Amino acid sequence: MSTPDLPHELWSPEVIENPFPLYARMRQAAPVARSRHPSMEGPIWVVCRYHAAVEFLKDNRFAKSKQKLDRDSQRRYFRVSSLKHLDQHMLSADPPMHTRLRSLVAQAFTSRRVEALRPRITAIAEQLLDTVQKQDSVDLLDAFAFPLPITVIAELLGVPVEDQDRFRAWTTTFLTPPKDGDLAPLRRMAQEFQDYLQEFLARRRAEPRDDLASAMITAEEQGDRLTPVELMSMVFLLLVAGHETTVNLIGNGLWALLKHPGQLERLRAEPALLDSAVEEMLRYCGPVKHSTSRFTLEDTEFHGERIPAGEMVVAGLVSANHDAEVFPEPERFDIARQPNRHIAFGSGIHFCLGAPLALLEAKLSFRLLLERLPRLRFAVEPSTLRWRDSLLIHGLERLPVTF
Question: Which keywords annotate this record (predicted)?
């Protein structure tokens, strides 16, 4: 069948609130759909079937580095030049640069290092819930799901935790490209975040500490090929990716449990299902809509489609995780689903480096939420909840609950 052409439908308010019917039509029609986001001049190709998405994520014909694109393609997709100082990190790099950049931070996310964070993550979660329990109802995103992971990643990097509200505002702007063509907020965000990181890294150079930022600075000074801009970009990436995935994993996962009270009660009765429950949250309502972008460097044939050179391609992660060829009854939320080979964290060499940390934070969070808030329920009608308008993130704007 021919490739669906969805000029703006994929980014419409109706689809943002409920993308699954459109994803199902896309998967039925073809493995790849062509779209165009209002903030970009060039098309976006979305790989929407599971097996095609896994293949795409491992296909080295699709480049991550934007520097490999010609000037015209760069202009069509990247109209804020100041962002380039925050974009020279491992998610925007191909081997061998990707290998080098990833290796610099991989040691911070080994299973042993992540497991060592368990007591601190538990203490942060307990403290947040102490405050939550003093109230009748809260927005759980503001009160718990956001401050937990941003505190963890900030402490890991050595960034002042008290600046978390600034990180949240900057990240929201970064992940929500303007549809009205006004790029001023994005330019202002890029400059403010860049200035902040330059000042922070200058302090760390002058006064190194036992944190990840200091370790990366030391590697740079000892002759590693990490440039000052790459260093700043890596800290930017870790701050943004280090909390956004977990915020929305917790928020979306709790939304799914509250929408399916039978599954919630089963999890309370069978706490041993917690691990598989979190995996099902990632499949059913994952925190990332689409993979980060890749580009064709020449005309490329993929699953019967010819994608012209210099065009953006992404994997539709949420769509792929609802592919009935892989997941029987994909619209059913089943906390005991086995097997569950979701790709919420991606696949291939760009598989999410922080996945073990996100999983640990989520599992500890849900264990404590269920233990300490036994009467947890929505504080508003679920149909009134709104989802974020973002190219990348699949997450709620707020999650009012009572208990």
Answer: Heme, Iron, Metal-binding, Monooxygenase, Oxidoreductase
